[in-house]
Design brief:
This protein is mostly helical and 218 residues long. It has one domain: Transmembrane di-heme cytochromes, Chain C (Fumarate Reductase Cytochrome B subunit), CATH 1.20.950. It is 63% helix and 8% strand. The chain has seven helices and four strands, in the order E-H-H-H-E-E-H-H-H-H-E. Strands 1-4 form a two-stranded antiparallel ribbon. A two-stranded antiparallel sheet has the order 2-3. Strand 2 and strand 3 form a beta hairpin. Helix 1 packs antiparallel against helix 2, helix 3 packs across helix 4 and helix 5 packs across helix 6. The chain is elongated. The two termini are 22 Å apart.
Amino acid sequence: MEETVEVVRHSLFYRVCHWSIVITGVILALTGMQMGGLYGIRVLNGQVLATHITVSFIFGALWFLMLYYIIAREWKWFSLARIPYSLKFLGSEIKAWFGGPHVEDPRGYDPEKKEYVEKIIPTEVMVWWIYFLLALFMGITGLSMYYKDFFAPVINFADSIAPAFGAESGLALLRALHRLGMYLFAMVVMMHVYAVFIFGVVTSMITGKRKEKVKKAA
């Protein structure tokens, strides 16, 4: 039987930030779909746009807090330099899904050195940066439609390329891109939810603790 040790995996700050992003993200999704007339969603009788914009600023601030935390405390695991490793691991996972050799879970903790040998499933590197870039993309396209004067350069650029995409105007193109971003974000969220259950990290995002495999650091 594999030896395990219970360790603190996520700090209180990280957990609060994570669940705050989840809550504000759900509010943004619901209010956004109501404004777009999608799927008959109706969560508010008034002030939908004001709520959507206000919550979007909170959502954006939370993402930048998360980015600060990642850079300050978790950069070893999420740095851009680990993306090639992440892609290689994803390739191995895909081969395993289609009958290839089993891919070993690389996560492990060295109790003697009191440090992780590997803290995350490598594909999390890509997922985190995709999340962040999509949040940035959604922020720029969404706020450009609301603060037209401030984001005039963005709107002018969108106007210049709108005909190439069959859009009537730059604002129409931005609206379509914003909606596309919503669907991409939802797709990544569903993949994320699936993965956290498969790799058993749901509880650790609530309690902060998880039983990790004991491994020796190199």
